[in-house]
Design goal:
single chain; mainly beta; six-stranded mixed β-sheet; four-stranded parallel β-sheet; 16 strands; disordered N terminus
């Protein structure tokens, strides 16, 4: 199990960054897990963009900005789903009702997912750009009625998508 550690203090096997910038987690066949320390204060969009074998993102507490739920990365209050690990082998995933934003690239290359559902009472309002890009096995998604915006290329290269329900009034 190969884990990339993100800590303020580092040794030979740890990344010492307080802020994770664009594309800062390297791609590679061996990277299957990421552990984010309490010292990490900012994670920017597309940090995990090429980490296609990543199966788990763990947040060590107390972290004041982030948490994980079942290996999926969220902001601390659970309102933004930041990253679903692309290498997870689950075929379905239910997004918690507390999520109001699906971040840009959140499900990028999550190729095992066939179905994404939303917990009853979903508060989702926005789907970020490239959120489900290259989720090539995704066949169906029923977007909740509260969604008012869907970013550019949100479903680009989701080549198996056969049905998508988009509520009226989405920009």
């Amino acid at each position: 199990y190969n884990i990339l550690y993100m800590y303020q203090l580092c040794t030979y096997d740890k990344i010492c960054q307080l802020n994770l910038d664009f594309y800062s987690v390297p791609s590679g066949a061996s990277l299957t897990g990421v552990e984010i320390s309490p010292a990490v204060t900012k994670i920017l969009t597309y940090v995990f963009y090429e980490a296609t074998n990543l199966t788990s993102i763990m947040v060590t507490q107390p972290n004041t900005n982030y948490k994980d739920i079942g290996g999926v990365l969220f902001n601390k209050d659970g309102t933004t789903l930041i990253q679903y690990p692309a290498g997870k082998t689950r075929t379905s995933y239910e997004i918690p009702a507390s999520v109001t934003i699906i971040g840009a690239g959140a499900f990028y290359e999550a190729t095992s997912l066939t179905t994404v559902t939303f917990e009853s009472g979903s508060q989702l309002g926005s789907i970020g750009s490239s959120a489900f890009r290259s989720a090539s096995s995704l066949t169906f998604i029923n977007i909740p009625a509260g969604v008012t915006s869907i970013g550019e290329n949100a479903f680009q290269d989701a080549t198996s998508l056969t049905s998508i329900n988009i509520p009226k009034g989405v920009a």
